[in-house]
Amino acid sequence: MAKPEQQPDSVLVIDGDVLVRHAIADYLRNCGYVVIEAATTDEAVIVLEREPLIVHAVLCDAQAPGMLNPFEFRTWAKGRRSSLEIALAGTIESAAHKAAELCEEGPELARPYDPQSVAEYVRRIIGTRASNVRTG
Hints:
Layout (H helix, E strand, L loop, with lengths): L9 E5 L3 H13 L3 E5 L2 H9 L7 E5 L8 H11 L4 E5 L2 H11 L12 H21 L1
Parallel strand pairs: 1-2, 1-3, 3-4
């Protein structure tokens, strides 16, 4: 009997700038991830509410459009799935402003994206999640 293959890790990329979103999504796909794209936090909520779809990490622009701002989206998503790793990305100025207004945590990545830094960050947060699942 053949062993079932392990599902590849998946990343949800949320960015209202289609060119940026496609570029980083294509890069992550080339790194071996399954990538789901959303232009708004509203689309991301729909993706995360789908039962059969497993999302391991989220990369969200700190200025992504939607009914929920990205910081509110992170709070909503963590409330539904506490183990989900969510990285907010933004310019230092916009991130500091929004973080000061909305919550204690600011973006973990800076835009414009450095594709290798993003891939390394995703590897690290998914690896942390996997080790927490094994030990927890």
